[in-house]
Backbone:
């Protein structure tokens, strides 16, 4: 990309301790290692003021040194720091003290305090992280986040800084997304597609989809699901529901190639685990799917994502009932019906979001 310089910081690989990787060791040696690992991890954690497992905590000197060099040599006027990991935000905010004239934009991609990760810390560690977050919010000229719930949370916790906290949503690149066909595939085959990571705690969502496949097959319909991901995670759920033969796992594809596959499929899948409030977050991929003008099938806990899909008639939620979803799928394909245009979707084109970001930071 022209005009973009990438500078790599030293890699710090955090390795999960043995007691977290092997939950139930069977051998005597394994049980001893489990106890020692847990004791040692707790000892190190207690020595550190804050979140010991934040992988950016060891990159303070490298980040500040390189950023200082770039600011001085290139007369940088704006600095954008994204987290988590959240110690990057804290170390990045220290640049404002060295260079008071820069505009500091701090970007929260997730909860720092107030989320599941913070809840796992001790009271002293939570207090330390809260103090760092407060300093970051105070020093920043602008605070952005793609999630409305995070923006509302920060405004509630820091009411005096509320004016600088802005929602800057995820978006999509219209240049990468092909125009979908105005017709479904051959009438006797219903096709589904998913692309991306299958995260932890998605069992509920995957089982909902497996039950849907079984429901459609029981009606004498032909189905095929193509999942583009890493490995074959949750394959045992499809096996337990007796639908393994209808599910195909594939290696991930480049974005353009995957979107082409989506444009050829009948229905697009959205799986949400409910972990870290993700059932409320509209990701970049979510908006990319909306642009495809295919019905989105939502599986997972109820939340803002499923509400948006249903309210905008962009798809169907399994939480309204598997039988109802099956009916809607069959009816949509029979009548060759597709989602209408969602008026607000162009707001999330990267071009418009970039213009919004420029206006925010002027």
Residues:
């Amino acid at each position: 990309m022209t005009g973009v310089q990438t500078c790599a910081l030293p890699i710090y690989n955090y390795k999960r301790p043995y007691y977290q990787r092997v939950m139930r060791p069977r051998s005597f040696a394994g049980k001893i290692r489990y106890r020692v690992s847990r004791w040692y991890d707790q000892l190190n954690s207690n020595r550190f003021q804050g979140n010991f497992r934040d992988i950016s905590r060891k990159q303070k000197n490298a980040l500040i040194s390189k950023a200082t060099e770039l600011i001085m040599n290139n007369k940088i006027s704006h600095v954008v720091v994204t987290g988590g990991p959240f110690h990057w935000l804290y170390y990045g905010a220290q640049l404002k003290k060295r260079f008071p004239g820069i505009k500091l934009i701090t970007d929260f991609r997730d909860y720092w305090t107030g989320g599941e990760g913070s809840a796992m810390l001790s009271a002293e560690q939570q207090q330390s992280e809260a103090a760092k977050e407060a300093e970051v919010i105070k020093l920043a000229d602008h605070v952005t986040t793609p999630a409305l719930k995070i923006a509302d949370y920060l405004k509630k916790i820091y009411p005096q800084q509320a004016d600088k906290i802005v929602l800057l949503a995820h978006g999509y690149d219209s240049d990468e997304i092909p125009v979908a066909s105005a017709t479904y595939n051959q009438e006797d085959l219903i096709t589904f597609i998913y692309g991306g990571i299958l995260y932890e705690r998605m069992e509920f969502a995957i089982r909902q989809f497996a039950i849907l496949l079984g429901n459609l097959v029981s009606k004498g319909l032909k189905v095929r699901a193509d999942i583009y991901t890493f490995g074959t995670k949750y394959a045992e759920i499809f096996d337990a529901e007796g639908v393994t033969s209808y599910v195909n796992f594939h290696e991930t594809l480049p974005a353009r190639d995957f979107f082409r596959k989506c444009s050829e499929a009948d229905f697009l899948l959205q799986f949400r685990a409910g972990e870290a409030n993700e059932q409320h977050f509209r990701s970049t991929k979510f908006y990319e799917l909306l642009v495809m003008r295919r019905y989105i099938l939502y599986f997972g806990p109820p939340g803002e994502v499923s509400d948006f899909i249903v309210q905008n008639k962009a798809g169907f939620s399994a939480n309204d009932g598997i039988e109802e979803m099956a009916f809607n799928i069959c009816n949509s394909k029979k009548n060759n019906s597709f989602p209408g245009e969602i008026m607000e979707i162009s707001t999330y084109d990267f071009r418009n979001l970039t213009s919004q970001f420029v206006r925010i930071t002027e």
